[in-house]
Specification:
This is Tyr recombinase domain-containing protein. GO terms for molecular function: DNA binding. InterPro entries: DNA_brk_join_enz, Integrase-like_cat_sf, Phage_Integrase-like_Recomb. Keywords: DNA recombination. By secondary structure, the protein is mainly alpha-helical. The chain has 17 helices and nine strands. It has a three-stranded antiparallel sheet, with no helix packed on it. The radius of gyration is 25 Å and the shape is elongated. About 5% of the residues have low confidence.
């Protein structure tokens, strides 16, 4: 069977599965937009010497050295797969500045072979894989696609333009990984994975009620009011296994750090890496006529979706007492009082005995996630559905449902695109992994009191702050 027949069969398979799963143009456009936001590459157009461009390119890859190494490894695996299966005579030419018009098909075949619930049979059809056959997760499929996006977009400087045919030059231009065909396949793959029993990948949104539970547990912990000296003396009497058995995994500083991260990520709709990179110089007090009310300006120096400046500041006002569990200003004040620090990164690595690391090193996302999960276990909540993106998803829902903010305002506050043509914000507002906001049996029970006591209208209604 010729390669073109293989690609025709693949095209028919994608068309068939996407129509059966009701894949929409909006989902495909959202998928392409997410990949573009993740890359944000710019193509050089000046006449600078190749040697200088090469040096500049090496230090401006946009990803960490570890991620760069991972992507390079996956790119080599892709080329090896294409070579072993005879799709290319010279697989090394797959990632290049002038990719083949068939590159999107090659990419799909590579991902499909490793991750899909079906596989291509050389006889010309697709068959279901046996349940005993090992398949990689959808998360890994996204990583494979991200490596290809990076390879074409960053390494070979094709940028973040969608793959398209130019009728003028009769050539294909842009990034093959951003082809609508690839996005259509990824959307249908995600649905097949979920139907096969793989857990949905979107993190469950944290709710104001959950944050209130965490805040109550943390501030009422017997260790919260301890001095650092007393806590270090307390833990010194126990081994690590004894401390864990007694639930002593975090001290007064760690508990305050968690509360501050929770509130900043939730109210400012920040990615967790953006929160952990905040330094003291980024939080600036603002003078108000009413000296009894504190106001802070958070000025981020860098954002993943806005890497070239003009980042709008977050103006944070002290919240009412009934919302203190959501108030970043209160949490920040308690953190500063407990640590007596005012330079470097705010969120630092916490060593044994609740001791803070150096201000030149920030806490890693992995370390925070581990602490967050331990904190959830403290209040008897299963941590499995939650992740680092749970806070910005929860904050978005809180602003829309509880604060009744217009979607455009939420997008502007979070630094997202205000072009609502594709309703990208919807995936933050609605997800099958979230807890229902109301029990089904009470949906039309108008006598059922919902929400908490509203400080504005005096009733128990959904508009009450929670």
């Amino acid at each position: 069977m010729s390669d073109y027949q293989v690609f025709e069969t693949l095209q028919s398979f994608i068309d068939d599965t996407s129509s059966k799963s009701l894949t929409t143009d909006i989902e495909v456009s959202d998928d392409i937009e997410e990949e573009q936001l993740a890359l944000k590459a710019e193509k050089s157009t000046d006449d600078t010497s190749p040697e200088l461009l090469s040096s500049v390119h090496a230090v401006s890859r946009g990803v960490s050295d570890e991620t760069h190494t991972t992507y390079q490894r996956l790119m080599k695996k892709c080329e090896q797969f294409l070579q072993d299966n005879g799709y290319l005579d010279n697989a090394a030419t797959f990632f290049s500045e002038s990719p083949s018009r068939l590159a999107p098909y090659h990419l799909i075949l590579w991902i499909q072979d490793a991750c899909d619930t079906v596989k291509y049979d050389r006889s010309g059809s697709y068959i279901e894989r046996p349940s005993t056959e090992v398949r990689l997760s959808y998360t890994h499929a996204m990583k494979m696609r991200a490596a290809a996006t990076y390879g074409f977009g960053r390494v070979h400087q094709l940028g973040d333009a969608a793959w398209r045919h130019s009728p003028i030059s009769d050539t294909w231009e842009g990034n093959p990984s951003l082809a609508s065909l690839v996005s259509t396949y990824m959307v249908s793959l995600r649905r097949r994975k979920v139907q096969a029993g793989e857990a949905p990948i979107s993190a469950r949104a944290v709710t104001p009620e959950l944050l209130k539970q965490l805040w109550n547990h943390n501030v009422h912990s017997p260790f919260y009011s301890m001095s650092q000296v007393d806590f270090e003396a307390y833990v010194a009497k126990q081994s690590k296994s004894e401390r864990l058995a007694n639930g002593v995994w975090c001290g007064p500083r760690g508990l305050r750090l968690l509360n501050l991260v929770y509130t900043l990520a939730f109210t400012c709709l920040l990615r967790i890496d953006e929160v952990l990179k905040i330094q003291y110089q980024d939080l600036i007090p603002i003078s108000e006529k009413d000296a009894s009310k504190a106001v802070l300006k958070l000025q981020l120096p860098f954002r993943k979706t806005d890497q070239h400046g003009d980042i709008k500041p977050f103006i944070l006002h002290e919240m009412p007492k009934d919302m203190m569990h959501l108030c970043p200003i209160r949490a920040f004040a308690r953190w500063v009082n407990a640590t007596n620090t005012n330079e470097g990164f705010i969120f630092r690595r916490i060593a044994s005995g609740d001791r803070l690391g150096e201000g030149s090193l920030s806490m890693t996302a992995e370390a925070f996630l581990e602490m967050f999960r331990m904190n959830l276990l403290d209040i008897g909540v299963d941590p499995a559905p939650y992740g680092t993106d749970s806070f910005r998803r929860g904050g978005c829902q809180w602003m829309s449902v509880h604060l009744r903010k217009p979607w455009r305002d939420i997008c502007e506050w979070g630094g997202w695109s205000t072009d609502l043509s594709y309703l990208t914000i919807v995936k933050y507002l609605i997800s099958g992994s979230d807890e229902p906001t109301e029990r089904r049996e009470n949906y039309f029970n108008f006598e059922k009191l919902v929400g908490e006591h509203c400080t504005y209208c005096g009733r128990r209604c959904p508009c009450g702050f929670q």
